[in-house]
Every structure is written in structure tokens, then in C-alpha cells.
Design goal:
about 260 residues, about 30% helix, alpha+beta, 8 strands, two-stranded antiparallel sheet, 5 helices
Length: about 260
């Protein structure tokens, strides 16, 4: 009996101090590993963001090539009293007032909407209005903000003031565009001109790089709202600091509106 009692006592559990030491070691290891894991996740997101910009660069280049060197508009305009124009055909379906992302979708190779609507006052099978549908493909949504799927307020912005302000000066005249069409040859420095950026207003979500695929206007150099180098010939002349800079976010002339 004494031998069994001694064996049982020799197999007793950890003391409180021993458990606390183990917990402290585990916490220390976690604190060391978490930053490395976070950095790895950020690097993965950055790689995915760059890959998406690569796809958008394809879309922008193909759109421009197939439209006689005219750059994509920010968003097709609304005509007063007409709930079905402007519209464009995307992958065989008419879409009411598509944005620049949707207009480039043929080049990206992915339909932007699951059930595109041809008119403003109709709804798709998901119950979304024709002028405010969600992008169905992740190709048109920044990986850093996957919940920003609304076509009117998406996670990608466009330098529409300089490259494609297709709003109407006269809403009764369907061709009274404020600043569109814009041909690419009118841009002084295509390789230095931002077209698409992964931000909205002053919110910066990801990658500070330039896609090497195209010597065109691309994406995301820190994603500021204004740009110091005026891209178009008729905008800032050298030494003129009073003319406006382009923008990617919301304003009183936001193409998303």
C-alpha cells in the first residue's frame, strides 16, 4: 500500500507557478509570431491588389484600343426624364449607366454584374435597383475592402475630371458631356498620370506601386485625392498653379452619383 501511495504522489499535476510559467511562455511566443503573421497577410493582400490592378490595366488598355484611343468615361450620364439612358451592352446584356469599371469589364474578361439592369426603375433578382447594383465579381472590388461592392461608391476611384468627365452640361442634351471623350494622345505623360486608384476620398487601402504591364495611367501611388502633374494639354499650363487637380473620390461632380 505504501508503494502505491508513493507512486500516486509522484504523478501529481503541475503547480500553479508551473502553469503560470507555461502560459507566460505561450503568450511570449504569440507576441513574437503575430507581427510576422500580420506582415505575411499584408504582403499577400498587396500581391493580390497588384494582380487586380494588372487586370484593370488590361481592361483599360483594351477599352482604349477598341474605342479609337478614347479613354473610358467615369460613368455614363443620366438624361433628364429618361430612366433607360445612357446604357451600354456588357457581355450581351444592357446595363444602365455603367461606371468606368463596368465599361472596362470586357477587357478584364469578367462580367461585373450577376443580373445587369437596362433601366433605372427596374430591380435585379437580388432586389437591387438598376442604378445601384453590387459588383458580383471580386475583380472589381479592392481585396482590402471586400464589402465595398456598391457600383456608386466602390473601392476604386477614377481620375475622371481629366480623363473622362462624362456628366452632362445640359441634362436634356444627351451629348453635352463636360469633358469627354478624351483621346490618349492628349495626355502629356501617360506613364506618370494616375487613372485608377484603390481609394475613395482620403481613405487609403493598399498598394503603393505601379503595374509594369502598361506604360499608361494606372494605379495607386499613395492614393492622394489631387495630382500635382496636370495630364491634359488644356489644363494647367507650366507655372499655372491655379487650375484644379484631378480627383478620384466623391465631390459635387462625382461620377458615381
Amino acid at each position: 500500500m505504501n508503494d502505491r501511495s508513493n507512486a500516486t504522489n509522484s504523478r501529481r499535476g503541475f503547480t500553479l507557478i508551473e502553469l503560470l510559467v507555461v502560459v507566460a511562455i505561450i503568450a511570449l511566443l504569440i507576441s513574437i509570431l503575430l507581427p510576422a503573421l500580420s506582415a505575411a497577410r499584408d504582403a499577400a493582400r498587396g500581391a493580390k491588389c497588384l494582380a487586380q490592378f494588372h487586370g484593370l490595366a488590361h481592361g483599360l488598355t483594351i477599352y482604349t484600343t477598341e474605342h479609337a484611343d478614347v479613354l473610358v468615361p467615369g460613368r455614363l450620364p443620366q438624361i433628364s426624364g429618361d430612366n433607360c439612358n445612357w446604357q451600354a451592352t456588357l457581355f450581351g446584356r444592357a446595363k444602365y449607366r455603367p461606371t468606368f469599371l463596368a465599361m472596362m469589364s470586357i477587357g478584364v474578361g469578367t462580367p461585373p454584374f450577376a443580373d445587369p439592369q437596362a433601366c433605372r426603375d427596374t430591380t435585379d433578382r437580388l432586389g437591387e435597383a438598376g442604378d445601384r447594383q453590387d459588383y458580383a465579381s471580386p475583380s472589381f472590388v479592392c481585396p482590402q475592402t471586400p464589402e465595398w461592392t456598391d457600383e456608386r461608391n466602390g473601392s476604386y476611384g477614377y481620375n475622371y475630371q481629366f480623363l473622362g468627365n462624362s456628366r452632362l452640361s445640359d441634362t436634356t442634351n444627351p451629348n453635352s458631356f463636360k469633358h469627354w471623350p478624351v483621346r490618349i494622345e492628349r495626355i502629356r505623360a501617360p506613364g506618370q498620370t494616375v487613372a485608377v486608384a484603390d481609394c475613395n476620398n482620403d481613405r487609403v487601402f493598399s498598394y503603393n506601386d505601379v503595374d509594369p504591364f502598361v506604360d499608361l495611367i494606372l494605379a495607386s501611388p499613395g492614393c492622394s485625392v489631387g495630382y500635382g502633374t496636370p495630364p491634359l494639354d488644356e489644363c494647367n499650363q507650366p507655372g499655372d498653379s491655379s487650375a484644379p487637380a484631378g480627383g478620384t473620390g466623391d465631390s459635387d461632380e462625382n461620377p458615381e452619383g
